[in-house]
Design a protein that fits this description.
- This protein is α/β, with parallel strands linked by helices and about 325 residues long.
- The chain has 10 helices and 8 strands.
- The protein has helices at about 90-105, 115-125, 145-150, 160-170, 180-185, 190-210, 225-240, 250, 275-285, 300-314; strands at about 10-20, 20-30, 35-40, 60-65, 110-115, 130-140, 260-265, 290-295.
- The chain has an 8-stranded mixed β-sheet with strand order 1-2-4-3-5-6-7-8, sandwiched between helices.
- Strand 5, helix 2 (about 115-125) and strand 6 form a beta-alpha-beta unit.
Length: about 325
């Protein structure tokens, strides 16, 4: 079984002036002369972590990581009291990726996306096909309206106790609206106590619906109040807008990727992002391969990590 590569530190990093007042943190690790590879983190709003570097063989890859607008070490953070998310959309993130590629003098790269990062990777590759050598997509989602409705409403059938708590946290003035919209409003309420409660309840629900795997542990990052607010604001912002994409756009246009090698990695116990999405993608993307993990949910696991590393090695 493959294990993650040793801990490494960046050999270069900086802040990209992305425009709209945003400065995007980026870093390069591994072999400066190696095969370029880009990591796209989940969330939206989770940011990259030192562990993200460890999926890639540092002898082979020139590893590029960045924190998407509003999160991680990028500035300003979505948790800022003055945060304005209007210039934070999928199109903005795609533009940031291209600016970063040009800054680093990279012609094309292998792209690894996890969870929300798979949506962004698909959108980026369909927009800039010639810049992508290969795609590795794990915990696959396209963030469509149907998927968002499932994540915030439908999956409550599997976790009724947790969903009732999640729904009950919405004040009467916002009841009747889709939960993702209600929470997006609460997270920007003028009352800090309302914002804080909404962030706590949103992250508790996030932890609940990824918890089917036997080895699941609560996300320790949710214990940090600033991270909770930043994460919850960005997730609800992108989800209530269905990733700022047309309905089923990424599925409808996936044939654009034919010719690009793709590895789709998904857990059978992933109720957060049901298997039908990677299944449909794999049927229409002729140069892709679907790897179904029998012991993994959306929270990952040992086989999940191994599958990513083996796909990148392949």
């Amino acid at each position: 079984m493959s294990v993650q590569f040793p801990i490494i530190e960046p050999y270069d990093c900086g802040l990209l002036d992305a425009g709209d007042g945003h400065r995007v943190y980026w870093e390069c690790c591994g072999n400066p002369k190696g095969k370029p590879a880009l990591y796209l983190h989940g969330g939206p709003g989770a940011g990259s972590t030192p562990g993200s570097r460890r999926y890639f063989d540092p002898q082979i890859y020139r590893i590029v990581l960045f924190d998407q607008r509003g999160c991680g070490r990028s500035m300003p953070l979505a948790s800022d009291p003055r945060a304005d998310l209007r210039a934070n959309t999928t199109a903005h993130l795609i533009s940031d990726i291209e600016k970063l590629r040009e800054l680093l003098g990279i012609e094309s790269w292998t792209v690894l996306g996890i969870s929300w990062g798979t949506t962004l990777a698909l959108a980026y590759a369909q927009t800039h096909r010639k810049r992508v050598d290969a795609l590795v997509l794990a915990l696959v989602t396209t963030t469509s309206q149907r998927e968002v409705e499932w994540l915030t409403e439908g999956v409550g059938r599997i976790f009724p106790r947790e969903w009732e708590r999640f729904a009950a946290a919405v004040p009467s003035a916002l009841q009747g609206r889709p939960l993702v919209e209600a929470y997006a409003a609460m997270l920007f309420d003028q009352d800090q106590s309302v914002r804080d409660r909404a962030a706590i309840e949103w992250c508790a629900w996030e932890d609940a619906h990824v918890s089917l795997a036997a080895d699941h542990r609560p996300n320790p990052r949710f214990e940090d109040a600033q991270f909770r607010l930043c994460f919850a604001r960005l997730v609800t912002h992108y989800w209530k807008n269905a990733a700022f994409l047309e309905d089923e756009q990424l599925l409808r246009n996936v044939s654009i990727l034919n010719g690009i090698p793709g590895e789709l990695i998904h857990g059978r116990f992933d109720v957060s992002s049901p298997l039908d999405i990677p299944w449909r993608l794999s049927k229409m993307w002729t140069t892709s391969k679907l790897h179904l993990l029998d012991d993994a949910g959306h929270g990952g696991g040992e086989s999940f990590v191994s599958a990513i590393i083996e796909a990148l090695e392949h």
